[in-house]
Specification:
This protein is mainly α and about 180 residues long. It is about 65% helix and about 0% strand. Strand 1 and strand 2 form a beta hairpin. It starts with about 30 loop residues before the first helix and ends with a helix.
């Protein structure tokens, strides 16, 4: 199936009709197997946050490089305060998401209950990645819309972490339930 984002990952529809699933293979909630599936989804949120970090980092680095090379009025655009502020804001978002994602990964390695933290890490990293990629495209200006520059792909790919494994609103719902709200 063709999709807007993550062209590097194949997506297909799988339909199973009249398939018998033995009782011992069911992933029913409340059972040990069901909990394993739920825990797997929780850990997957850390992976999705890490994917967002990689995409955001690539967009940030491309924007920094471009800003140093692109000249306006004989001066690299990296010398303009408006561009500098964009780049610094991008870095701040990236570092915030990275620190939190790494902390949650350490918590998972230690066996801590990470349901709330994994949802927050995914939400912070995914939303932050999208914002970073939008700013990166703005640094590129009109060239950012051209297929020859990777920043347009980073922006497209930034939508996957916001949707895959549960939207940011689903992450908010998970956190609100964890907080008994």
């Amino acid at each position: 199936m063709e999709k807007f984002t993550t062209h590097c990952s194949d997506t297909a529809e799988l339909v199973l009709d009249d398939v018998f699933v033995p009782e011992e293979c069911h992933l029913a909630s409340g059972t040990e197997d069901g909990m394993k599936a739920y825990e797997s989804l929780t850990v997957d949120r850390i992976f999705t946050a890490a994917l967002a970090l990689g995409t955001g980092r690539a967009a940030y680095e491309a924007a920094v490089q471009y800003a140093k090379e692109r000249k306006q009025f004989g001066t690299p655009i990296s010398k303009f305060q408006a561009v500098q502020f964009k780049l610094v804001d991008m870095l701040a978002q990236l570092e915030q998401a990275q620190l939190y994602t790494y902390q949650v990964a350490r918590m998972a390695d230690a066996g801590t209950n990470i349901t709330r933290h994994a949802a927050l890490a995914k939400m912070i990293a995914a939303d932050g990645c999208n914002q970073i990629c939008q700013k990166a495209l703005n640094v590129f200006g009109g060239y950012g819309l051209m297929m020859e520059y990777p920043v347009q792909r980073y922006l497209r790919d930034s939508y996957f972490p916001m949707i895959g494994g549960g939207t940011s609103d689903i992450m908010r719902l998970i956190v609100s339930r964890q907080l008994s709200l």
